[in-house]
Amino acid sequence: MKEQIDRHNIPQHIAIIMDGNGRWAQKKGAMRIFGHRNALTAVRESIESCVELDVKYLTLYAFSTENWSRPQEEVNALMEILINSITDEVPTMMKNNIILSSIGNIESLPESAQRKLHEAYELTKSNTGLTVFLALSYSGRWEIQQAVQSIVKKVVNQEINVEEITQELISVHLTTGKVPDPELLIRTSGELRISNFLLWQLAYTELYFTETLWPDFRKEHLWEAILDYQKRERRFGKTGAQIKGKG
Question: Which of 19, 21, 38, 181 is catalytic?
């Protein structure tokens, strides 16, 4: 399947909603946290595949603001997994020239998690390959709210005029900053929604949904999503003839 991929039409930025850990565990008669622990292989394979295909950015929806309402035991376990996985994976990131970053309300995470994240940022910031964004304590509406508040402060302080507020200006004030919007969004587990993820950035993103539960997601599933993406015609409001230069 990998050989069928057109290397000249690889999405620069892929975003993934990693869904189905709990259901995967329940199918095996285990607690939900068992699914979260077994999801790390899917994360590794997705990152490795993106490196192999020269994808520039990968954003993983790891923990939403809504996830804070889950049982405290599960939240604590998720934070522990986050800390341990960052510690374990940084050497591999260095070996593979990967930059680790994050988006979201990072200040709301436990101090130990914040510390590990910042250590990883510092260690990997000089790398030049794939950038992996972890969306942590993240919400698309929260992000837009933060951007609006930041812009309003600049208007009040007379740093910019109201007329200068453009779509480009709003984009720059989002947590993704100057990173290009995702061309491809993948959601696992069969759910058909975007769950408050990258609401502004997904305006023209191609959406791909798979029944595969996240702990079972492997390289071939990512390849399949990219192949499906490559069959589509991205028109951005234009006609097919215009895109092909015939109209």
Answer: 19
Query: Could you tell me the two tokens for 106?
Result: 């990072």
Q: Is the pTM of this model over 0.70?
A: yes
Using CA atoms, how far residue 53 sits from 62, 105, 167, 214, in Å, is 22, 30, 30, 21
Q: pLDDT, tens digit, for every residue of 119-137?
A: 999 999 999 999 999 999 9
Amino acid letter, 64: S
Catalytic residue among 54, 67, 157, 216: 67
Instruction: Pick the closest to residue 218 from 97, 78, 38, 82 (CA basis).
Output: 38
- Residues 87, 113 contacting (CB under 8 angstroms): no
Secondary structure letter of residue 43 according to DSSP: H
Q: How far apart are CA 225 and CA 188, in angstroms?
A: 11
**Active-site residue flag, 19:** yes
- What is the distance between the alpha carbons of residues 192 and 137, in angstroms, rounded to a whole number? 21
In the 8-state DSSP scheme, what is residue 106? G
Which of 51, 139, 124, 138 is closest to 89 using CA atoms?
124
Buried b vs exposed e over 120-149: b needs ≥16 C-beta within 10 Å? beeebeebebbbbbbbbbbbbebbeeebee
Active site residue 228: no
